[in-house]
Amino acid sequence: MAEIRLVGTAHVSQRSVEEVRSAIEEFQPDIVGVELDRGRFISLTEETAEPSVTEILKSGNFGQILLQWILTYIQQRIGAETGVKPGSEMLAAIEEARAHQKPVAFIDRDIRITLSRFWGLMGIREKIRLVWALLYSLVSVDHQELEIDELTDQDVVSVAMEEFRKFSPRGAQALIDERDAYLAHQILMLARRYDRVLAIIGAGHIRGVQRYLDAPETLPLLSDLTAEVKKGLPWAKILGAGVTILFLLLIAAIAFSGVGLDVLLTAIIYWVVINGLLSAAFTFIAGGHPLSAVTAFAVSWMTSLNPLLAAGWFAAIVEAKIRKPATGEIRQIMEAGTFSEMRRIPLFRVVLVAALANIGSSIGAFAYFLFIFPVLGIDPSVVIGDGLSNMLQAIAGLL
């Protein structure tokens, strides 16, 4: 029977680096498993090719991209407080294992799969709460005194994990529970080939992984942990189509209600203005160039009526032409010391403009339906009732 030892670490703790070295020296394992996937190991140790600005814009995943960058920034800031680069304890484990001529195994799930499942499993409310919490963290992380070594204390870790589970149940499933199972799978595979296995994993995974090691029959299938999230109904497109249909019905109802051409034109103008102003305002909040804001204003009314188009995409294209992001800026974003420094990097500004212009446009579409009738000074029940009744009569007459 193989002997397995788990070492829990905090990813930005100097004490964790020292504990890793001590564990290898004392335990003398036949193999060392580290909580890294090969892609993250390469990104920590080598210069890697970055996607072009065009590829980033074509992907359209602006929210996911910002999420990854902000998470990395927060971890970098905590690392700066302790003088330890994130991932140092894993690199120390690899270095120490190689110094003792021990093989190393990368036992974590591919980060791209984890982020994809993390984002895909969360509902819209969880995503909104997460983005808000991350934005708050950008401000608060600079002002908190952090007891980093407490991050390896299991009682502290358990409380933190449970709080995150309450905050985002589906996010916790992808980020914690599934990775507990994946790590346990990999460790058990190593245990079939080696007599002494040392696994270096984050302290937050210790209890979950140990539960699976004690009862391997409870492990979910490995294929289920790496599969793409089954997509349900495309709610964003359905909602977008609903907005389009609702707007067209509203305009048709006003046109057939007999309230006058001036009211109809005012309703259309306000659609353009409310959508455009909010999309432009959010572009400015992102630090976008005035021409990007003008672009957002000009296209927002149209993109709000077409679920396949997005105002942020057009604004980001203009922003990219003005800011001219260069090769290597993704690494600059990852290494930024402050949020202000991140915002000064052209590529970050382009993605932020894309994301916030889209948010502004979406808010504008919903704000329109809330305020249009008070602005027009008409009774919606009368206008819509009369308009739809007259429209149906007109259609019946044609038939």
TrEMBL record:
Pfam families with a match to the protein in the record: TraB_PrgY_gumN
Keywords: Membrane, Transmembrane, Transmembrane helix
Matching CDD domains: TraB_PrgY-like
Highest rank taxon of the organism: Archaea
InterPro entries in alphabetical order: TraB/PrgY/GumN_fam, TraB_bac, TraB_PrgY-like
Transmembrane segments: 235-256, 263-285, 291-316, 350-373
Name this protein carries in UniProt: TraB/GumN family protein
Species in which this protein is naturally found: Methanoculleus receptaculi
Lineage, broadest ranks: Archaea, Methanobacteriati, Methanobacteriota, Stenosarchaea group, Methanomicrobia
